[in-house]
Design goal:
GO terms for molecular function: xenobiotic transmembrane transporter activity. The structure is a single chain. The protein is 55% helix and 20% strand. The protein is built from 31 helices and 30 strands.
């Protein structure tokens, strides 16, 4: 294989050129996203029915939960029940296909006979808004009609556009608004008027006419075609509908408000699952130019959210760090090799490996994302390392051989080490594919990128590098090389003397090494643990909840004061308000999205600004939470800390929740502590006095129907419009639906048609009750939520667990974590599993390659040394462990094994050639010192931009790079000393064990 590459340079060049071309093509055609497509099989089930809270919980929610819980692969089931509405989130295990999960839910729910309207929706990690458009107009009705008839259909036709959420939109309708005084004048009620209208405004099939030649279907169109015709419907002789009601072309009562400079409609546009986010957003922006020309001049729109800007910003930063890292790496390589041609040949390995890796990633079905580029940045050290080791070995041979011969002998001598190194790296990442968790999908995306790069890098180092070296490597030493050589000779001599002394005092050195390791592991216990670090994306959100059950307009007024306060901040670019933003469209809940000015235009980072806003926006009458926008879209994942108390007795659950909040409030770094049982609703309860109803001969059902048609905006027909159909609804005029006095004015009739006051048979009672009931895995639950400020999620979780007996008490209660704090546990479990399996695989592979049971253990001693260094680096810089850091540590374990393999492989060869262990180790150490130092410095300098540049993604990139840098430093320094010590200590044991299985061999 080596000879072929050297003897057939054009064929070799064409092979790698083909890989580069396919790689470039892949890079320009692959999907581009911020993070890997984490498809969490999450299904949302919404149910609407006429029923109070208890009815919805017992008759709707529980029935749905019981049916869904029988589906195979279900992981968690959470629900919230409200008056007339309930929502359920069914999360399935990751190996369950989202489409299959949705079909299973449909099949199960299809067997239920529920008096409710059921909607089923698939939710994935990329189902959040990719671009948001805000529309406003001075004519609200016209705006609603154009949104429904023109804008939404227009956007839906754009390639890549998925679901569109319209916040602040109300469907146009024809509203009949009854005057209660006029009803009393004509001795009418809302139910009677509704029935009169239904009897005069309808269409229906009437049968058919049939003869020998034709068949005619009969249809009766007895409906008003205009509002004027509707007004002329006769109620009594001489009394028309317009005499007792206002009939207007309006829109539904608003359940949500979107506000940006004025009221309007916010359209949150999602992409189709697995579609290129950047491409979809680009398609929408391009199409908006045409839409603008089609809209009336009084309708304006703005882009308020554009995910592509954040994606491009992060990717550009990582690419810049990568390019800068390449530049620094080349400087290091040149300073060590001091040979321009060798440096250029080494440089070829980096772009070739990176670009060709895109091709493999594309074939395997992965997309380009931030983790892909971070993986390639972290792997640059691997790419250059393989090339350096080969070039450095070839360069040594140039002193005695021609370039052609030196290239062949150099790669042949080092080829087995390169193979061992590559196999070890692959072994580190194979276990990642078995991590069946959300964090596992992140690990998997990085692992595939690195593994693909390792394979390409191996091929480049054993084929392309020798081929180029044989033709272009210059053996002539420059004056700079000659003058600087003495520096490297002194380093080698210093190392040789140091190693000699350490080998003579190996027990003392082993003790020192173990003390270092134990100290670093002790530091690890003091380092915080997060799922994903808070990054400066120049955006965050403020959640507002009123402690009273306010109307939509009242909540808007309160929220606008906060919005105006925020807009005065010079660090803020813009902000907009959403009232009633959640699934239940609760008027007492609002959210403000805040877009900060770019990082380079402000002094404070986002984390500092958020912390300041928590103090600034405190309000005794409002619950206010200031949170970053989560990196992973999903149901209810906004709050970092989510702790649930589960049980049957709601009062006991409330008591335990209060104790949980008491525990959390003891630490001032835990902020925005809240729970989902605080929300109360104001209620006027109506009770039929059965004795009076019987005495006066009143039917309670008839009373309820009158009240429903008076206050509920019920649909009683429809009217065609140009491109749509508007519902006709009826109720009292809004001015007659404001307080309890409105109820007292309602008149009813008994079975004899005698007119009566509602209060003659109905009692009224003001009351306050809970607004919702939540379930988790079919148990009643209350969720405590909190934010964090300079404290890790791991510390919060430990605080809760340490006080669990106090929180739950002696009641028969249970608990669960959800959201990011739950993902944190899954991440740690997956990391431990991956590392354990990786170590086993590395040992098995190295044992097979070296035909030794001891040598793999000597090589693997570098891995805990690297972990110790990584812990030291994180502790000194004040960073926490996170998903990104754990990914880097897995990569680090593969990288540090390279140096040990180079050293052990050569020492082992020399021992088998007859040298004693001390001589073999000193020879191997001195021979491999430059290559080890060069590759280590190259990898460290490749990481420096990620570690130091405080641009986009610094909060995640820096801890990753720091853990790798410190891990490399500690493992390299100790590898050069510890590995020889352990090699010498275990060499005789290795020989004894070898004698057992090498005693008999076939000749």
């Amino acid at each position: 294989m080596y000879k072929f590459a050297i003897n057939r340079p054009i064929a070799t060049l064409m092979f790698f050129l083909a890989l580069v071309i396919f790689g470039l093509f892949s890079a320009f055609t692959m999907n581009v996203n911020l993070f890997p497509n984490v498809n969490i099989p999450l299904i949302k089930i919404s149910a609407k029915a006429n029923g109070d809270l208890n009815y919805m919980e017992s008759k709707i929610t529980k029935e749905l939960e019981n049916a869904i819980s029988e589906i195979d692969g279900l992981k968690t089931l959470s629900s919230a029940s409200y008056d007339n509405f309930s929502v359920i989130f069914a999360e399935f295990k990751l190996d369950k296909n989202l489409e299959v999960a949705a079909n299973d839910v449909r099949d199960k729910l299809g067997t239920l006979a529920l008096d409710a309207k059921i909607e089923i929706e698939k939710i994935s990690s990329d189902s959040g808004a990719n671009i948001s458009l805000f529309f406003k107009s001075n004519n609200s009705l016209e705006l609603m009609q154009i949104i429904e008839d023109k804008v939404k259909p227009f956007l839906q036709r754009i390639d890549g556009v998925g679901k569109i959420n319209a916040i602040g939109f109300s469907k146009p309708q024809i509203r009949i608004q009854l005057d209660i005084n006029k009803l009393q004048k004509y001795n009418l009620n809302a139910l009677e008027v509704a029935n009169i209208i239904k009897n005069q405004n309808f269409k229906q099939g009437l049968g058919e006419l049939e003869n020998k030649e034709n068949n005619f279907i009969l249809k009766g169109y007895f409906e008003a075609k205009t509002i004027d015709e509707l007004k002329k419907i006769r109620i009594y002789p001489g009394v028309f509908l317009s005499d007792i009601a206002k009939i207007e072309n309006l829109y539904e009562n608003q359940k949500q408000i979107a506000f940006f400079q004025d009221n309007g409609v916010l359209l949150e546009i999602n992409k189709i699952s697995n579609y290129n986010a950047l491409k979809m957003i680009k398609n929408v922006k391009k199409a908006l130019e045409n839409l603008k020309n089609e809209l009336p001049k009084n309708i304006e729109f703005n882009i308020l959210y554009d995910k592509s800007a954040n994606i491009i910003k992060h990717l550009n930063q990582v690419i810049f760090d990568m390019i800068f890292g390449v530049f620094l790496t080349l400087i290091i390589v040149f300073l060590f090799l001091r040979n321009l041609s060798a440096t250029i040949i080494a440089f070829v390995a980096i772009p070739t490996s990176i670009i060709a890796t895109f091709f493999i990633i594309n074939i395997l079905g992965y997309d380009l994302n931030r983790l892909t580029f971070i993986a390639l940045t972290l792997s640059m050290g691997i790419f250059i390392d393989d090339a350096i080791v080969v070039i450095e070995n070839i360069t040594k041979k140039l002193k005695n051989y021609s370039a052609l011969e030196a290239s062949y002998l150099g790669v042949k001598e080092i080829g087995f080490s390169i193979l061992s190194i590559s196999v070890v790296l692959l072994c580190v990442f194979v276990p990642i594919s078995y991590m069946n968790s959300i964090s596992g999908l992140f690990f998997n995306a990085l692992g595939i990128s690195v593994a693909s790069g390792v394979i390409i890098s191996f091929l480049v180092s054993i084929l392309l590098i020798p081929s180029l070296s044989a033709r272009f490597l210059n053996s002539k030493e420059s004056s700079f090389h000659q003058k600087s050589e003495i520096f490297f000779i002194k380093i080698e001599d210093f190392y040789k003397n140091l190693l000699y002394k350490i080998l003579k005092n190996k027990i003392r050195f082993i003790v020192i090494t173990f003390i270092f390791l134990l100290s670093c592991f002790a530091l690890a216990l003091k380092i915080g643990l997060d799922f994903l670090p808070m990054e400066d994306d120049s955006e965050f959100q403020v959640f507002i909840e009123s402690k009273q059950d306010l109307s939509l307009e009242a909540m808007k007024d309160k929220s606008l004061k906060i919005l105006n306060q925020i807009k005065q901040d010079k660090r803020v670019d813009y902000a907009y308000l959403l009232v009633g933003h959640n699934d239940a469209k609760e008027a007492s809940k609002a959210k403000i999205y805040i877009k900060l000015k770019p990082l380079e235009e402000r002094k404070e980072r986002q984390k500092t600004i958020i912390s300041g806003y928590r103090t600034l926006l405190k309000d005794n009458n409002l619950n206010i939470k200031v949170l970053e926008i989560p990196k992973i879209d999903g149901a209810g994942i906004d709050d970092p800390v989510q702790f649930l108390v589960l049980g049957d007795d709601l009062n006991k659950i409330k008591e335990a929740t209060l104790r949980a909040k008491e525990v959390l409030s003891q630490n001032k770094a835990i902020v925005d502590i809240d729970d989902d049982s605080n929300a109360k609703k104001a209620e006027i309860a109506l009770f039929i006095n059965q004795e009076k109803a019987k005495l006066l001969n009143v039917n309670p059902y008839y009373v309820a129907e009158i009240l429903k048609y008076s206050f509920n905006n019920l649909i009683i027909g429809s009217m065609d419009r140009a491109n749509s159909k508007d519902d006709i609804v009826i109720s009292l005029d809004s001015k007659f639906k404001q307080d309890i006095d409105s109820l007292k004015k309602i008149h009813i009739k008994n079975n004899q048609g005698i007119d009566l006051d509602l209060s003659s048979v109905v009692d009224f009672l003001y009351k306050e009750d809970i607004k919702s009931i939540h379930h988790y895995n079919k148990n009643r639950s209350i969720k405590t939520t909190a934010g964090v400020n300079n404290i890790s999620l791991g510390e919060v979780q430990n605080l809760i667990l340490k006080n669990m007996d106090f929180i739950l008490g002696k009641d028969n209660l249970n608990y669960a974590f959800s959201g990011f704090i739950n993902l944190l546990g899954e991440t740690i479990d997956g990391f431990i599993f991956a590392i354990t399996l990786g170590f086993i695989l590395i040992y098995l592979v190295l044992a097979a390659l070296y035909e030794s049971l001891i040598l793999p253990l000597i090589i693997m001693i570098t891995m805990p040394l690297a972990f110790g260094g990584a812990c030291l680096g994180l502790f000194l810089t004040g960073h926490n462990f996170s998903l990104f850091v754990l990914i880097a540590i897995i990569l680090l374990f593969g990288m540090v094994g390279k140096n040990a393999i180079l050293l052990v492989d050569l020492a082992n060869k020399k021992c088998h050639e007859g040298l004693d262990p001390d001589e073999a180790l000193i020879f191997a150490g001195k021979s491999r010192l430059r290559a080890i130092l060069m590759t280590t410095f190259a990898m460290i300098f490749a990481m420096l931009p990620l570690a130091l540049f405080k641009g986009s993604g610094y909060e995640a990139n820096s801890p990753m790079a720091i853990s790798v840098i410190f891990g490399l430093i500690s493992s390299t320094l100790l590898t050069l000393l510890v590995v020889p010590v352990f090699f010498k200590t275990c060499f005789n044991l290795d020989l004894k064990i070898r004698k057992i299985y090498e005693r008999k061999k076939l000749l």
